[in-house]
Amino acid sequence: MTRRTLRASTGICHVVWAAALTLTIACAAHVSRAAAPPAAPSPLTLWKQGVKIAPVSDGAHHSIHTYFNTSPESPDGRYVLFYASTIDTGYEGELRIIERATGRETVLARGVTVEDAHRAACQQWISGGRRVVYHNVLDSGEWVVMTADVPSGETRILARGWQLGFGQPTHDVVPMYGPHWNPGDHRDLALLNVETGEITRTAATTEAVRQAYPGWYSKTFGDAPTSVFFPILSPDLSRVIFKVATPAGGDFRSKQASNRYGLICYDLEHAKVLSLTERWGHPAWCNDSCRIIQYGGVFIDGTTGKATKIPNFPATQGAYHPSCSPDGKLFTLDSMAEKFGAPKDWWQILVGDTKTGESVMLYRFDHAQGAKSWRKSHPHPAFSPDGKRIYFNVSDGRWTRLFVAEASSAEH
């Protein structure tokens, strides 16, 4: 073979090799693209179309879900719990459950008197749905924490001189605090085991808060007496958030009953104050027992107190109440709606993606009527245990009524 032929042959080989390499790269890219898993659907997909919205209970009475920190639906999805009252103010009533499949209502507790129609009896599922726990004020004026057994309907007083915070429905333990306008000897956090009736005093005290944040405490309360107020246990029960109260008056049906400040996160396992956020807002635990979703469209790290903004969080009006879905992928909230084109005193319910902030407006409604309580009932949306439904209060007529929004059963 001549040199010229060899050079020509070598050039041909280079061209063939380059072409083969190009083809290999192209094929690899095609295979890579073909093998790439499909993008996960947005957790919002089932809330964008086909959502069904309806009242939970029919009839001439209030049907009020207590608060956005707990779901009114039982852990097994069978029942929905609410406070019912035929009194215009909603101050006296009873606790009922309604079976979702049949619509059959059962009265669990009668003769229940509440502080207001805003949080009603702080009624909540406990013990995996076998019981309901709530607080009540007796004719004597004494506050008590009680349970109602779902199978038998038996009610029991478990603690006297206490009010009820919020626990977790699959556990037996709930937090308690002394009445914020007159706590007496119950100034610090206690835990009640509804199975055994045992009351445990904890190291979560206002003195512990004072020692951890002396400057803030002195500036805020001075030498005034203080007590733990409105404790909420984390999903795994290892932590609790609460605020600090100081009495300001003897009438519990008044804004002047007490002054309350701060958002304290406390580690129950290690008996340690973790963080302070000076504004309470409307906090709710997320599923990881670390993050707290908060008014302002932020997640607060309970350990450090650092706030992280949720991107593209929807515009809101008024003091809304955010809470997370059981898997932490979605949030829901209520908001006044006038600045978005609705009539005065109308509200709306939104659901959104906790990562992207993308949101959907589910329902807009008149909320100017309902229970004539000194503290008005707010919608307080909360997810069902499986995340497929959102419950909220609507005051569009004489009665404040519990509604449910159910996500579509198929992707669109």
Summarize, please.
The chain has helices at 3-35, 206-212, 214-221; strands at residues 52-55, 62-64, 79-85, 92-99, 105-113, 124-126, 131-137, 143-149, 155-160, 163-164, 173-177, 190-193, 199-201, 227-233, 239-247, 258-267, 272-277, 284-285, 291-294, 298-301, 307-309, 323-324, 330-336, 346-353, 359-366, 382-383, 389-394, 401-406. The chain has 412 residues and is mostly beta strands. Strands 1-28-27-26 form a four-stranded antiparallel beta sheet, with no helix packed on it. The protein has a four-stranded antiparallel beta sheet with strand order 2-3-4-5, with no helix packed on it. A four-stranded antiparallel beta sheet has the order 6-7-8-9, with no helix packed on it.
Q: Mind explaining what this structure looks like?
A:
The chain is mainly beta and 412 residues long. The protein has one domain: 7 Propeller (Methylamine Dehydrogenase, Chain H). The protein has a four-stranded antiparallel sheet with strand order 1-28-27-26, with no helix packed on it. The protein has a four-stranded antiparallel sheet with strand order 2-3-4-5, with no helix packed on it. The chain has a four-stranded antiparallel sheet with strand order 6-7-8-9, with no helix packed on it. It is globular, with a radius of gyration of 27 Å.
